[in-house]
Each structure stands twice: as C-alpha cells, then as structure tokens.
Design goal:
Helix 4 links the parallel strand 3 and strand 4. This protein starts with 9 loop residues before the first strand and ends with a helix. Helix 5 (about 105-115) crosses helix 8, helix 6 (about 115-135) packs antiparallel against helix 9 and helix 7 (about 140-155) packs across helix 8. By secondary structure, it is α/β, with parallel strands linked by helices. It is built from 13 helices and nine strands. It has three domains: about 1-40, no CATH class; about 55-100 and about 220-330, 3-Layer(aba) Sandwich (Rossmann fold); about 115-205, Adenine-specific Methyltransferase, domain 2 (Orthogonal Bundle). The structure holds S-adenosylmethionine.
Length: about 350
C-alpha cells in the first residue's frame, strides 16, 4: 500500500459540483475543478465513540512497523478503531480492509454507519436537541439518560435505533466507559459532561465514506483468518492483561478475556506467522509492574518484543493516570528491528 504524504484523504464538497458549474458557467472546465477543490473541506475520519484502550497514543509507533507492501489489513479486535481510521485516512491504496469485534452492539453500530448513516444522524440530532433542552435540570437529565439505558438494554429496537442508543450512551455516560454485567446489560451511570456532543454529523458522514471499502464482522478473532490473502497485515489489540486485580479495565463484553484467551491468541499469532502473514500485537507490559512476570516474554519469545511509552486514558481514578510502557510485538523481525 502507498502511504499518502498528507493525513487528509476524504473530500467533501461544500456544494455539489453541478451547482458550482452552473453558477460559474463562464469559466473553463479546469477552473471549475480548481474552484471545487479550493471550496472543498478535507475530512479525516476519526473514532465515533470513546473506547477503553484507544490506540491514538501508539499510532506513530505502530505505523513505523507497517510495511508499505501490504494489500490487506485485518483488525480482529477493532474497538473504537483508532488505527483503522488512521490507516483508511493515510493508506488510500489498501485493497481490502476487514474489521471484527465480539461486541455485537458495537459492530451493529459500525454497520449502521456504513449502511444507514442519515437515519442515524437524524435520531441522534433529535435526542441531542431534547437533551440540550434539559441540560440545566439534573433530575430530568438523569431520567432521560436512564430511560435510554433501559431501552438499550431491552434490545428490542430496530438496528438503527439500537445504534443511536449505543452512541448516545457512550457520549453521555460516566467517562465514556462501556461495561456490561453477566446478562450483557450496560450498567454505566450517567456522566458529568456539561454539554456533550452527541451528534457529530460531520464525522459520522466521513466515517460512512471511509467504511465503504471495509468488511465488517462480528465474532471471535479467529474467524478473521479466512479473509487473509497474500501481503496481509493483522493488527491485534485484545483486551489487555490486567496489571493488577483492581487496576485494569477489561470488560468490553460479558465474557472475560483471561490468561487462557491470551494464550489462545498467541497460538493464533504463531499460526498466521507460519502461514506467512504479518502481524503486530499490542498488550500491557506486565513485566514493567513486576520484573519477574515473564508471561508475554515467554509466550512471544520467538518474535520481536518492543516496549513503548503509552498513556492509558480510561481510569476511574484520575490520580492513577500516568505513563506506562506497553508491548508492541511483531513477527516482522528483520525489517523492523531497528525501529524502536
Ligand atoms: C482493547 S479493545 C480494542 C481497542 C481498539 N483497538 C481501539 O483503538 O479503540 C479490545 C476489543 O476486543 C474485543 N474482544 C474481546 N474478546 C474478543 C474476542 N474473543 N474476539 C474478538 N474481539 C474480542 C472487545 O469487545 C474490545 O472491543
């Protein structure tokens, strides 16, 4: 894939080209085009939700490890998609992009943005107006939030409404957390944002355009294997192994991603390595916390393990926010050896 030199790749014209042509009919065709480009606003797709473990901080480190020859990009734990959108914005020549996540509510929302963005935007706009009208009244605001949360948890609405509820809750809940109980009920309380942007219509439309070339799957990470072709890169960003019993956030879904799951993922990485595909994986650096903890160093001893600085942003206790090292592991031994 060829990387673009600028970060913006998606163009949205402020006026349709035909309108511009009609208004300026005395100009030459080439000038119409120049004018249209001048009037265009370059747009960059960005994550449409806040999601624990967002990779914005690590993007440059990960990008430095990506081979320019990749044709297919697969992200089996897509979450908020920080790296996905970065690549869609910066590598327009990618032939095939596949994303997956086990969280059905999240994946339905990706699909709604891809297939039904206008209806989604109008629902969110309506709810944003209603919410802004009661911003000053704490009781009414709470009632409104918990009604939406109850409706979301019933999971009886059509897919577009369910997706709008998912975004509404993400924008208005405590710290933008996603947490469900054993019954898969979202149980995060209302947040304290003064005037949250619930309907970012411009970004939703840009994401809609960016998702056109993306295949969207819902299920376990192993189901992505058949989508790999020659020159495929997998990027794995699984739920991180907790650094301690209490410190980490790891419940994106009702089933826990425990040590056995981390081992299953490491075995999957070995398998795709033997099939000749590239992969990069990020995870917490448990050794940084306990120098005797060789869990990942042992699991990935045949691959290149890099330690990079990264800042975690979702942590209920703000005093605990700070710089930690994280792991970036890859099977691309030679090409990337000098990078970190
Ligand atoms: C750390 S988050 C990904 C963060 C994301 N890369 C971002 O930038 O926001 C991990 C994701 O893995 C998903 N997940 C958990 N278990 C999974 C499994 N067995 N297969 C696929 N996805 C899984 C969770 O739903 C969650 O969205």
């Amino acid at each position: 894939m060829t990387k673009k030199t600028t970060t913006n790749t998606i163009y949205t014209y402020t006026k349709p080209l035909e309108t511009i042509n009609k208004t300026y009919t005395y100009r030459k065709t080439s000038l119409f085009i120049n004018f249209a480009i001048m009037k265009s606003t370059k747009k960059t797709a960005k994550p449409f939700i806040k999601w624990a473990g967002g990779k914005t901080q690590l993007i440059n480190d990960i990008d430095s490890k990506i081979s320019s020859k990749i044709h297919t990009y697969i992200e089996p734990f897509v979450g908020g998609g920080a790296l996905l959108f970065y690549l869609l914005n910066n590598y327009p020549n990618l032939k095939k992009v596949v994303i997956n996540d086990i969280n059905t509510d999240l994946i339905n929302t990706y699909k709604t943005i891809k297939n039904n963005v206008e209806e989604l935007i109008s629902l969110l706009q309506e709810w944003q107006n209603e919410y802004y009208n009661i911003l000053e009244n704490e009781e009414q605001k709470k009632e409104y939030y918990y009604q939406k949360r109850t409706l979301f948890n019933k999971r009886i609405s059509n897919k577009t409404t369910q997706s709008a509820l998912f975004i509404f809750l993400n924008k208005t809940c405590f710290n933008g957390l996603y947490r469900v109980n054993r019954k898969n009920e979202f149980n995060v309380p209302i947040g304290s944002y003064k005037k949250p942007l619930i309907c970012d219509a411009e970004n939703l439309q840009t994401v809609h355009l960016a998702l056109k070339k993306v295949e969207i799957l819902n299920g376990d990470f192993e189901q992505t294997l058949p989508y790999a072709e020659k020159k495929t890169l997998f990027y794995f960003d699984p739920p991180y192994k907790p650094l301690s019993e209490t410190s980490s956030f790891n419940s994106y879904a009702k089933d826990e991603f425990n040590d056995d799951e981390q081992i299953r993922l490491a075995n999957f990485c070995k398998k795709i390595d033997s099939l000749g595909y590239d992969w990069i994986l990020s995870n917490s650096d448990v050794k940084g916390k306990n120098p005797n903890d060789d869990f990942f160093d042992d699991l990935f001893k045949d691959f290149q393990i890099n330690r990079v600085l990264a800042k975690r942003s979702i942590n209920a206790n703000t005093n605990k926010r700070g710089q930690l090292t994280e792991l970036l592991i890859t099977n691309r031994k030679k090409e990337y050896a000098e990078v970190i």
